[in-house]
Hints:
By secondary structure, the chain is α/β, with parallel strands linked by helices. It has 2 domains: 151 residues, Alpha/beta knot; 72 residues, no CATH class. The protein is 32% helix and 16% strand. It contains 8 helices and 10 strands.
Amino acid sequence: MDKIKKIFRIDVISLFPKTFDSLGSLGVIGKAFSLGIAKLYTHNPRDFTEDPHRKVDDEPYGGGPGMLLKPEPVFNAFESIPQHGNRRTLMMTPQGKRISQADLKRFSEEYDQLIIICGHYEGFDERIRTIADEEISLGDFVLTGGEIPAMAIINGAVRLLPGTLGCAESLEDESHSDLLLEYPQYTRPSEFRGSSVPDVLKSGNHDAISDWRKEQMLLRTAKRRPDLYHLWLHKNNVNKQNIVNQLPRSLQEQILKEYSYLGDPWWD
């Protein structure tokens, strides 16, 4: 049985704290909050302003479009948050590192507290960046604010906490847990509109099923995400030529054509 560690505390600094209310009723994530596995606190910079108008943004020096978040309210909100064990402060920004499953696993296992800073308007005063331990992005696109990325981080980290999922083993083979995508899965009926469940999955032969699933993970990753497949080969230091020879030639050619910039032509 998994040992449940101390409560995982999440503090979000956001101009729109009500955005996060829905997390409390969101399936297993809501269950984790209701069971006390994790606790969520929100902090609105408007409550930490130093002027009677509760101003949180201002024009950028040097001119330019839009308004920037002022440093004083964000710093004041940050400094009001009590420390809860080992903590990490994340800034949501399109300039940040693209989040990965490995990052979510690291947040859930190595830290007791996450502080997440959500931007808005045209961006942050540059001095706010000094608060953050890491700058995080969901990808190469821009949203109106950091709330949606923050909710994705919370969901992804909390679901990995011991006690959140009823079957912890389900985390082991899911997509991105070891760089590989998850194998195809089927449920009843065995026949549906001309498509059948693979015979091996109905065979009752657990060794054969395990081998099929491993093969499908390799094939699916090589076809859909050859960049991840390349990284998996390097990480595991496998016999690359033998693995690659198991792939259809078209996939080998696709990897060569689209991902040659990664270097180390392991398909040779």
